[in-house]
Model the fold of this input.
Amino acid sequence: MERIKKLSGATVGIDTAPLIYFIEEKPPYLSVLEPFFAEMEKGSFLVSTSTITLLEVLVYPMRAGNYSLASEYKDILLHSKMITVEISHSISERAAGLRAKHNIRTPDALQISAAIETGADYFLSNDLRLPDIPSIKIITLDSLI
Done:
């Protein structure tokens, strides 16, 4: 919880996995994500993601015919204090630069680029393969537990 408080006043980009872990209440991450999203809703910090997250979180519920879960995902992405940005030309171009320099996968490059576009100081993920990127600090959920 103390690490979450340190994000106060910041903008935090968020990857898809933390959102899935939160909505589906996955231990041990829920102990970090519940206070994270509570602080977001209080306005302690801004949280942003991209429409890549919307695409990724809807696949499983749609495949399973679980439209209430799909609706829950859409609600938090489109009707909460989270900022969900569309992938623009500038985000795509920045993502290409990240891929060229850091050899990261396209979805990761787009997510991180969208976070940078919103002025994010941090990017919350649980992908241990993400490299250090000078313009944004990568935080893994595992490091917060």
